[in-house]
Structure formats: structure tokens, C-alpha cells
Specification:
10 helices; about 325 residues; homodimer; seven-stranded mixed sheet; about 30% helix; Phosphoribosyl-aminoimidazole Synthetase, Chain A, domain 2
Chain lengths: ~325, ~325
């Protein structure tokens, strides 16, 4: 059955049933002109993110489930990046009228898995048809007491990341070379076959990082951090943005960048530069933050904030100034 | 100059400068991962709306200025429809990399004109490239004390609309026949030439209603209304939705539907049914609400809420049951 036979009203009705919620702060949820919330936190955080077919995703490499999961995840990541835990989501979903019922069901299953994982309620959105490319956007809302923006880093502070970098970019590269979707879900990651001499054990964390990213919560770092963002476009461009907003510079120590053994292994087999993937690869969705404190747990110290200039320090101490490299739309 | 030469970072920088704001409740605006607000109203209202090229608009009939103006207007209308006055907007903007600087500038001029008109601040959003069709969405946020949803209409209450119906649908039909954009703006509506024997005076309100809709504020009706929505898809489908949510029926008196003299005039010349345009034409963005009170000003009494059934009463008292007609996506 296709969306052209189901229609907007029936789809909306099924979404309302699937995503019924019980938070008592949702006064009015899905199905009206606007959603209404009770909100009593000091600050209200709002973020929105687009995902467009052919730009952010390619259905040759991603399943509808993974697409739905990722749509929620990218906007939750933006909120985590400000030190906030989102509570509510709205989704704008533009699909072709030839979309199958199976696509819709698995797409919404992915959305639901992510909402459950990140403990968010879907409270509204908009449905539309599109002529060609799928067009999606997600809005997330949450309350909080402390704001961690890109401003606030001070010279002398340490720069931290919360996990391995480059895995997601390597995962995307793997998918492009496999040229087919890998139908893993949150509850079933067994459907990976070895590829180019790389075992399932090596492939799984790389593919999963790209397809079903597992966000780190900001809570353990909020108290000590002076600035924060998520790494979505690549470490170098993102730290450049943080430095620009904070009006400071940064030294990044290349041998301190956390890189997974799987990435080291796969990059050799694929003929890719492991360091380039870690420094410029996008979509890792790890948190990047600065702090005057020495943190022992959950984060890797990769550099220091300085007065000005952005420099990469090599293994032997050689300094290479870097300019923002990474993904820029339109260019 | 094209967007491919300007780039995302430069465009973002120019947006930040253009839309700087001074509301002290905006703690953190455009340019970070999320926007942060101070919010102290009893209820928080949030709404989002998509506008996709080829579905919601056709660049053969609409200028970039009008597109920007309408993008803001449709989401403000959703908030008005709940009895709320929005204060903040986020915009998701997906444009082709070949988009010209002139397009971008006039598109943002339209956005700015609408923000000014509806007294809203742009606080964030997302920019993306698209391969083909332009994809836009707007998120609006506001605080309020009373919620006017689609639920709440009671048998015996009166049904009101705040203005003429059918004008926007007639305006769209005119544009399709003219097959070219009519470059009117909020400050200049003089650029209309007579068409098929219809004078500028007749054409102007019809075209303006479609291209630059002028929303009625809900404030004068909030106190007395029991349910409310905006007419975006057409009177009959929208009243059907209100009835469904309120679990009631409606009688609509066809001779009480407010119709402009311009619509009467143009529909004859164009060979269209004036009544059909008024009953099923979309995008008028008038408020539709119910109230137990007899209201003297600013709204037209067009029908009554009954226990069940939706019926149109003709001039001579003949009753025609109606099923929801109007625009449904995907079908």
C-alpha cells in the first residue's frame, strides 16, 4: 500500500495513536494547530535541524528505520551540545506520495526507538507531500538551568571530547563502498557481513556510529564546562567555530585525539588516512567542550585554549596552523 | 552572485546581522546549537509548518519576497488559531546552490517584513542545500494564559469566521491564469495590471490575500470563544475537523458566508463558482471559532453547532450534508 492510498488524515491518526504520551506537562499534543506545554524551568532551549535527501542522506545507504532514528538524534545532539536535556520534539515530514506503507512503518519505528532512547515525547509537527527528494526537519524543546554555549572558553582552559572521532566518517565511506543499506536496528546489530577482509566486529562500531549514533549525555560535564558544542561537521571546523565565538585560539595535539582500534584497522584496509577522518570527518556527534578543570573520566583532553590562532601540534611537536575544514552547505 | 559562491558561513553571518534583536527574554539567539529563552507564561505554545516547492508554492506565481512573507505568516496563523500571540521564530531553509544573491536578499526582506508585522523575533534555525525543490519550514513559539483548541465546541453555540472566504483561492486561480508572478510587497501593491477585464481595484485584494495574507489577531475573541482554528485547507474540511475533535456537528448557512464583492465580480468573469471557492478554497487564514455569545463586531456568524452531522443549509432552507472536502496531502 502506498501513501497515495493512505492519505494525510489516516497517517496523522496513526501517528497520534503510536505516539500517545503521558507526561502531565503536555497540555495539548499532536493534532491541533500548535502544541501546548507547561514549562517551569529557568531557561527554555529550542533547536531545529534539517535532513534533506541527497544532501544529508542517501537511501542507497540508509534504511527508513535508521533515517527516523537519525532525524531525532541530530536534534537531540544539538540540545545536548548546549548542556540541555530535551523533553519534547516536533517533526516536519515531507514524503513522496509513492512512499510504501512498509517505509512509513519502519521510519516511524526508528523515530520511536530514538524517542524512547532519549526520553522525549513527540508533541506535534507537519506532514507534506514532496515531488522528489524527501525533506525532514526536527524541532526539540527542553528546559534547563545552565546554558553552555560556544562562547565562554578562556585561554588556559583544556579542550575535551567525549569519545572516538572519525568512526562515523569511516562508516559512511564503508556504506558508499558496500553500496547497499546495512539493516541494523537498535535491538539487532547482527546483520553485518564481513567486507574487504574486515570482520563484523570491526565493521559494527563504525557502521553503527554513522547509522545509529549513540549520544553521550552532557550532564556529567555541565558543572565544570565553560563552553560546549557537538562535533557534527568535523573536529577542526567545529573547534574553529567555538574559538571564533569565544574570541580565543586553540592548540590541538594530534596524538591525543581518541581514535578507535576499529578505525585504525579499517582505514588501513580501505586506504584512508585515519588522522584525516578523525580531524575532519563529520557526524560523530561527540561533545566538544572546554573546562579549567582536569577531568579524569568520560572525556579526552585533546588540546588547550590559547589567546589566538588555531594550530595542530604533531607527534614530534611540529605546528601546523589549520583553517576551518569541514562540510559547508552550498559551496 | 550565487549561493555556491557565498557559502553557508557567510550567509549565516549576514542573517545574524540582519535579524539582531533586542528582546531581553532572548538569552541566546541565532548561531549556536540551540536558542535559549526566558519564559514565564503559564503555557508554552509551539507550532511548525512546512512549505515545499511544487506542493505549497510555485515560483512561477510567487516572488521570493512573498515566499518569505508567507513562510512566517502560515506559522503565525497556527499560533493565532490557538489563541496565542507568537513571539519567536526558527526557520529551516533549504535552497539550491544556484540560488542568486537577489533571490536570497528579497526572500529575507519578505521574512523581515512579516516578522515586523507580527512582532516576532527570529532566534534560530538551520540552513541546508537541496538538490532540486526548495524546502522550508518555520517554527513559532509563544506564551499564553488560555488555550483555544479544536476541542471545546458545544451544541447550541454559534460558529464564526473573521473575514471573507474564497479570496485566496481566487487569487491563486488568477495567478495560474496570469502565469507570472505579481511583484507586490507590503509597502507597494501598485504593481498590478488589469486582467481579463478585471480592474486593479478588484484584483488587488484577491491577489494580496493569496500572496501576502493579513492575519486577524485572535485577542478580541479569545475571551468569548470555546474552540478555535484557522481556515487553511477550506471552510468545509476545517469545520469538519473542529467538529470531529469537539465530538459535535455543525449547520452552516450558505447565505451567511461572508464573500467579498471582488470575489463575486472576479468569479463571474473567470467562470468559477463563487460559493465553491468560499466553501472549499484554502489559504484564507481567517479564524474559525465557536462561542455561546452573540458577537457584534469583527466576526461573521455563519452557522451553529449541533449534536451531530455536518450540513450546509441553502438559501431556500434545503439541507445538503457535506463530507470533508479540501486539500489532503499524498492523496
Amino acid at each position: 500500500m502506498k501513501l497515495s492510498q493512505i492519505g494525510e488524515e489516516t497517517l496523522l491518526e496513526s501517528i497520534r495513536k503510536t505516539f500517545s504520551h503521558c507526561s502531565r506537562n503536555i497540555v495539548h499534543g499532536i493534532g491541533d494547530d500548535a502544541a501546548v506545554l507547561r514549562q517551569s524551568s529557568k531557561y527554555l532551549f529550542v533547536s531545529t535541524d534539517m535532513m534533506v535527501e541527497g544532501i544529508h542522506f542517501n537511501l542507497r545507504f540508509i534504511t527508513p528505520y535508521q533515517l527516523g532514528f537519525k532525524l531525532v538524534t541530530v536534534t537531540v545532539s544539538d540540545m545536548y551540545a548546549m548542556g540541555c536535556t530535551p523533553q519534547y520534539l516536533l517533526l516536519n515530514i515531507g514524503l513522496h506520495k509513492d512512499t510504501t506503507k512498509h517505509f512509513i512503518n519502519t521510519f516511524f519505528a526508528g523515530i520511536q526507538a530514538a524517542l524512547l532512547k532519549y526520553n522525549c515525547d513527540l508533541i506535534g509537527g507537519d506532514l507534506s507531500s514532496v515531488r522528489r527528494d524527501i525533506s525532514l526537519s526536527a524541532v526539540s524543546i527542553g528546559g534547563g538551568k545552565k546554558i553552555l554555549s560556544r562562547k565562554g572558553a578562556q585561554p588556559g582552559e583544556k579542550i575535551y571530547v567525549t569519545g572516538f572521532l572519525g568512526d562515523a566518517a569511516c562508516g559512511l565511506e564503508l556504506l558508499k563502498r558496500m553500496n547497499k543499506p546495512v539493516p541494523i536496528t537498535c535491538s539487532n546489530t547482527s546483520r553485518i557481513q564481513s567486507f574487504k577482509g574486515l570482520s563484523r566486529k570491526i565493521l559494527q562500531p563504525l557502521l553503527k556510529r554513522h547509522l545509529l549514533p549513540d549520544l553521550k549525555k552532557p550532564a556529567p560535564f555541565v558543572k565544570h564546562a565553560s563552553s560546549m558544542m557537538d562535533i557534527s561537521d568535523g573536529l577542526l571546523i567545529d573547534i574553529s567555530r567555538l574559538c571564533k565565538e569565544s574570541k580565543v585560539g586553540a592548540k590541538i595535539y594530534s596524538d591525543k585525539i581518541p581514535v578507535s582500534s576499529e578505525l585504525r584497522n579499517a582505514s588501513i584496509k580501505l586506504g584512508l588516512s585515519c588522522q584525516k577522518l578523525a580531524l575532519t570527518g563529520g557526524e560523530d556527534y561527540e561533545l566538544l567542550f572546554t573546562s579549567p578543570r582536569e577531568l579524569k573520566r568520560g572525556a579526552y583532553h585533546i588540546g588547550d585554549i590559547v589567546e589566538s590562532g588555531t594550530v595542530l601540534i604533531g607527534k614530534n611537536g611540529q605546528e601546523t596552523p589549520f583553517s576551518p575544514e569541514g562540510y559547508q552547505h552550498f559551496l
